[in-house]
Amino acid sequence: MSKGVFVNSGFYAFSSGQLFVHAKVNNITADAVLILPPFAEEMNKTRHLISAVMQQLAAAGCNCFMLDNFGTGDSEGDLDQASVDIWRHDILQFIELLQQQGYQRLSVVAIRFGAMQLFDLLNKDDLALPLQNIVLWQPIFDVKKFWQQFARIKVAEAMASGNKISQNELEQQLLQGDKLEIAGYPISPEFYQSLLNIKAAIPAQLSDCQLSWFETSQLDNIALPVQKMLQQLQQHSDVNFQQFKDEPYWQTTELASADKLIALTVQQLAGGEQ
Questions:
Q1: Domain spans of the chain?
Q2: What's the CA gap between 99 and 32, in Å, rounded?
Q3: Which residues contact 52 (CB under 8 A, 6 or more apart)?
Q4: What does each C-alpha distance from 270 to 27, 31, 117 come to in angstroms?
Q5: Ramachandran region, residue 93 (left: φ > 0; alpha: ψ -120 to 50; beta: rest)
Q6: What is the pLDDT of residues 94-146, one digit of tens each?
Q7: Tens digit of pLDDT for each residue in 6-64?
Q8: pTM confidence score
Q9: Options 3.30.70.260, 1.10.150.530, 1.10.10.60, 3.40.50.1820; which CATH number does 10-141+200-270 get?
């Protein structure tokens, strides 16, 4: 198999523009691992963990990749020019390029927003490579809840400055064609609309691959919303669900470690010992 183009991290041409691909490639293999990252500030909190798991997976023999979405990270464009649809098309193109390089199977690590992105992708498109493994880190499945949590940042910012605004008012501004800035991230009406069009229903393809869900929680028990979603997933696939106590790495003030999470991921994808 040819090593192809994605041997080193760097900028590559996609239909949306020059996008930055993070690559950890140490050997010639039929299997590729793709990381689907979280959104906005959660990505900043998680990037060091993604780098660590990619390094450990590569050391265990897995070739790992992550695409910085258009308008995010190091890639070309600004967020207010982006949409979930643009990101989906770029990921599809990326998987096609992996297939052209000679990869035969794909595993995915989907983190937070990345889980919705993965389900949307599977519900709307056929992938160029068969899915072998899916590993979910603290997944978000409900786009309305995702937007509600993100919009709360703007509501809190307004309250802190002595103003008052509701989530409904923010949504009306977007529907009227105005751009918003939330926590320093420019949100366009087009991006907001593309969020609403995410199809996050449980994809049929889950029955054909190994599914793991690794949940970090401060609770002794599994939260009710997690239980309900887990039960729905179990109707489609055997789920390797593991919950453990650790810091909420996606929202801590200081960057957090997640050694158990990374070890479980490497064990699942590379067959290494925990």
A1: 10-141+200-270
A2: 9
A3: 262
A4: 13, 10, 24
A5: alpha
A6: 999 999 999 999 999 999 999 999 999 999 999 999 999 999 999 999 999 99
A7: 888 999 999 999 999 999 998 778 899 999 999 999 999 999 999 999 999 999 999 99
A8: 0.94
A9: 3.40.50.1820
